[in-house]
Write a structure and sequence with these properties.
The chain has 506 residues and is an alpha/beta fold. It folds into 2 domains: 173 residues, 3-Layer(aba) Sandwich (Leucine Aminopeptidase, subunit E, domain 1), CATH 3.40.220.10; 230 residues, Zn peptidases (Aminopeptidase, 3-Layer(aba) Sandwich). It contains 15 helices and 20 strands. The strands form 4 sheets. The chain has an 8-stranded mixed beta sheet with strand order 8-9-11-10-14-18-15-16, sandwiched between helices. Helix 3 crosses helix 4. The radius of gyration is 24 Å and the shape is elongated.
């Protein structure tokens, strides 16, 4: 029988949103499987030729040549051949260069995208020569690349089946996946779920409830929560001011994982957790306001990163601090022109109630320093629109006082596939946030907005505290898909923080 049809994509194939196939590892495919084959060039790998047989291999070789498939990285071909028992055969270009683990994640996501086209119960993925660790990364990428949030779709259909990665030592690949990549993917998907939930469902107390469920039974973890009484006792006027316009009170969630040496100073990740941002009295326009349900991405990301590290038993001490509030404009809401006093004693003139993320972080990062004396403090926030205008959706903005800290984060971003671009912190930015009637003001600071937002948070970071600020407002939501980040919530930062923590103990 002859080759029946060929479909070639000359662009990166990125998966659309759909339900999940499970990842698995196998020694060899079965005849009922569909196949996806990694190809570094236009010729089928020897392992694939041996599996398919001479007739099918010749048939597919002619199809590949006719389609001008070269094996270029990211290019895929979907081949249907009746000359093989396997039926559906897919080709995924990986190029001739050595792949990094982040590239293997993309490969796995592309394989998952092709698996969507298959009617087979199992799609087996062949990448001859790939190590167990590389296949584990590919499986993690497949899990992240398939993500969709279908919870509220009445017509959503369950997807069954598996995407199985072929390895000479499947048990080793499975162990590698179970040691880290499974938990990293699950944490990323949890963060995306939290971003995607509507604000009538997810609010500060519900966030806390779901975080407790996430860590239920995980060893080495302790959770504490600051409520309104605690915040008043501690003098946290900044976060209380943000939350006072909502019937849903603010919370600060603290998740502590002790996996490192006793007495070692922890890494602290602090996340902005505005479960809905109407802008408050400085109310936003309706266009795009629905996306403000995801203004809690920073809190979701730092909580999820601690989950990944704790469940994989990483040898680190790490703390996630989620500063949770809902910013609403009722009669008790704070007003532009109000002055509040943060936990540090610093007074803040409220120039805009829509610059609320920096306010909740002001109290959260100060409390983290007072309580935990961090070895490194990293805050994560969907803070400013200006960072997206500066960097687009390819990079998150990085701000750091020290070059060495910036370099550590950039390296972690490069390794994890969540890239950062360093933006300036200048003494002038500290001048721009000065208030005429208080110590600092939270808005009306002029350009560059991302830098003055970082400078504001830096006001609440002690000079001797190693610190970095990540503005993820341009990368938290995908309007164009990428292999491991489909349309919608991205969970950007989970892989980055996980990598940063692991790098700190290597």
């Amino acid at each position: 029988m002859r080759f029946l049809s060929v479909l070639i994509s000359l662009l990166l194939l990125t998966p659309s949103a759909w339900a999940q196939r499970e990842a698995a590892f196998i020694e060899a495919p079965s005849p009922d499987d569909a196949l996806a084959i990694a190809m570094a060039g236009p010729e089928l790998p020897e392992a694939a030729t041996a599996l398919l047989g001479e007739a099918a291999s010749a048939d597919l070789a002619r199809a590949i040549a006719a389609a001008n498939f070269t094996g270029e990285a990211g290019v895929t071909a979907t081949l249907f051949s009746g000359a093989t028992d396997f039926g559906e055969v897919y080709a995924i270009g990986i190029g001739p260069e050595d792949l990094r683990l982040r590239d293997w994640e993309d490969f796995g996501a592309r394989a998952a995208g092709l698996a969507k086209l298959s009617g087979a119960e199992r799609v087996s993925v062949m990448a001859p020569g790939a190590s167990a660790e590389e296949l584990a990364a590919a499986a993690g990428g497949a899990m992240m690349g398939q993500y969709s949030f279908d919870k509220y779709k009445s017509d959503a259909e369950p997807v069954t089946g598996t995407i199985a990665f072929v390895s000479d030592n499947a048990s080793e690949a499975q162990r590698s996946y179970d040691a880290r990549r499974r938990y990293l993917a699950e944490a990323t998907l949890w963060a995306r779920d939290m971003q995607s939930e509507p604000a009538n469902v997810l609010y500060p107390e519900e966030f806390v409830r779901r975080a407790r469920a996430l860590f239920n039974g995980v060893s080495g973890v302790s959770i504490s929560v600051l409520d309104e009484r605690d915040m008043k006792r501690l003098g946290m006027g900044a976060i209380l001011g943000v939350g006072q316009g909502s019937t849903r009170p603010p919370r600060i969630l603290i998740v502590r994982y002790n996996g490192g040496a006793a007495g070692d100073a922890p890494l602290v990740f602090a996340g902005k957790g505005i479960t809905f941002d109407s802008g408050g009295i400085s109310i936003k326009g309706n266009s795009g306001m629905w996306m403000m349900k995801a203004d809690m991405t920073g809190a979701a990301v730092v909580t999820a990163a601690v989950s990944s590290l704790a469940k994989s038993k990483a040898p680190v001490n790490v703390i996630g601090v989620a500063a949770l509030a809902e910013n609403m404009p009722d009669g008790s809401a704070q007003r532009p022109g109000d002055v509040v006093r943060a936990m540090s004693g610093t007074t803040i003139e409220i120039m805009s109630t829509d610059a609320e993320g920096r306010l909740v972080l002001a109290d959260a990062v100060w409390h983290a320093q007072e309580e935990f004396d961090p070895a490194l403090l990293v805050d994560v926030a969907t803070l400013t629109g200006s960072v997206g205008r500066a960097l687009g959706d390819e990079y998150a903005g990085l701000f750091a006082r020290e070059d060495a800290i910036a370099e550590r984060l950039i390296a972690a971003g490069d390794a994890s596939g969540e890239d950062l671009w360093r933006l300036p912190l200048h003494p002038n930015h500290d001048q721009q946030i000065k208030s005429m009637i208080a110590d600092v003001k939270n808005a009306d600071t002029g350009a560059p907005g991302a830098s003055t937002g970082a400078a504001f948070i830096g006001t609440f970071v002690k000079p001797d505290t190693p610190w970095a600020h990540l503005d993820i407002a341009g990368v938290d939501w995908r309007h164009e898909p990428q292999p491991t980040r489909p349309l919608g919530a991205s969970g950007f930062g989970v892989r980055l923080l996980d990598q940063l923590a692991r790098d700190s103990v290597e």
